[in-house]
Amino acid sequence: GGYFFPGLGGFKWPKFQGPDSITQFVDHISYTAGKHALRFGGELHYNKVTNASYGNARGSINFLGGVLSPGPPPPGVPLSTPLEDFFAGLPFKETVEVGNPTLHLHNWAFGGFFQDDWRATKNLTLNFGLRYEYRTVVQEAHNLLGNFDPNVGLVQVNTSSNRIGSLYNPDHKNFGPRAGFAWDVFGTGRTVIRGGGGLLYETVNWQSFIAFNNAFGPGSVPTGGLNAGVPIDPGGTITTGNLTIKNFLNPTPWDPANGPIYGNNTTIDCAPPNPCPIMTVDRNLSTPYVTTWTLSFQHALTPNLSLEVAYIGNHGTNLTGIRDVNQPTLGSGWGSGPLGELTLCLASAPKYTNCVDNNNGGEQTNLPYATKFPYLSNIFQMGNVYRSNYNGLQATLNSRNYHGLSMVAGYTWSHALDDVGANWDFGYGSGLPQNAYNPGAEYANSDFDVRHRLTLSLTYAIPGKKGYGQALEGWELNSIVTLQSPQHWGAMDEGTDAAGIGPLPVSPPANSPIRWDFFGNTNDFKSGPNEIPKYTVNTGLPSACTAKALVVDGGSPGAATAALNLFGCYAQGNSVMIPPALGQFGTMGRNIFPDSGFRNLDFSLAKNWHFGERFRAQFRAEFFNIFNHPNFANPYGGQNGFGFNDPSAGGFGCGCATPDVAAANPAVGSGGPRSVQLGLKLIF
Asked: Which of 170, 268, 429, 615 has a Cα at 20 to 30 A from 419?
């Protein structure tokens, strides 16, 4: 990590969608019988989408450094730098998409429901219902969808080999019961208790598995490709995919097999040393669902003032997620001592000379399917691997024109947990677990988890007095106050590969994401406008870092101390964060650090004029963030953020922007500097 020159070209774009069409038939019937209000109905959808994700169609070229040297350098003589290789025109790796990724997709969806609203007594209503849904498995007009079978390798839907008739097995069990009640406790209409629960099924977005990272999916599983000139899947016709050429101008002596690929620009050959990465779908994929429940108490204090307290919960089950089922054995890229994988050794030579490359027991050799299917590298697979959970207590005080005051005050105390989010995104919209064989270890605070949130919206019509030009009437004040406790973020290292599990097939180069080891109070690493201090061997390592590394090593210097010397550490307050021991995963959880929270006050002043009964005018002066209070974004910055949560890169722990800028929406987003807006509205 940090040794690559960013390179040339682009990886993720362009993307085209459409034309799309949805043909829908819906019919509902209502019938009242005594105290029962019955409803039942159904719907039929035919969905058709044309999708084309040309990820890496323009190609990308990356520069590592070291390829200028024809052999191991003499002692004390470093290899070339990435920038030197760039100017010399000697790239480390080239990747480019070949074939036509356009897919013509379609499926059918059916739904039916029955519901009974039963007025059991004059102040108690009960609700019961049941819904059934079924969606056929998505099909491609020319059967250009492939998958992975751990017994036979790559397979294609409805081809001459006739191995699979659909991308995954259909799910016929989507029954969703619903139940609820509404109870007017005293029969006065002033105190009401409501409750309910249900099971809701999710519609999985095709884009989430058809165009993973805009480059991988069942449409680019190269069943029509070759393995050293031999067809991978007899009868396969998919020839779309990403070709990779490593060190294609000058293979290095450390990995002499890394030469040009076989094949040409129209036929994919996945033979080693350039095996193909693919993205597939679990054959037993089931429909994700959410179980939700609510209980609320509502009381009218006066005709114009009401209070509501509610508990809301939901639990997501069988949520879809993506993991690499061909992730190398932990530590495959490291030797027995403080030595790095091939790329690190190249960039650091001659300091490290005992590297483990792919020809001598390295990462590619230690893939679970390396022996059976040597032509495959990363096998990303979508499956039901994730879950989510939310519990919230909400209180709302609502005033409607109480002596000119209208107000909505809301407070929420909640906790949201899940397995994946934007802070753990690293360019792959769906996220990946640190350990592909234990995705449940990702369960932690959600990116959007806010424990406490208070909002207050006020509108006050100032009592007026008749006078000249309506000068003393028609004035009103408006304000919105927002106070919320911090959201959470965590370390996501895609540069060091301290775990020794290899790179991801992305550009610019990135390693599989890992976390570090943290010791201390997570509040010491609260993010703000400045990055958290980093220390290296060159700047001097704090004694707290070296002491914790020795604890991990069991008292004498070992793999943790070696990682510390290689990658440095972070220290602030009484807490430290050190890289994991070489060949191990980090022990810290996901999203353990708080950001700076959010506090904002918007204010406006309005003046209304009435001209007869049908015409009036309103002048408004609006002040957004009137106190100009600085709010700093989460270090990741949101879905379009800056990514300052990677300890292998610069700026770790820095908010560095307001939330609106970090979300690429400075015009209408929240959290920016004070803005003043004047407006005149004519109403007639």
From this structure: 170
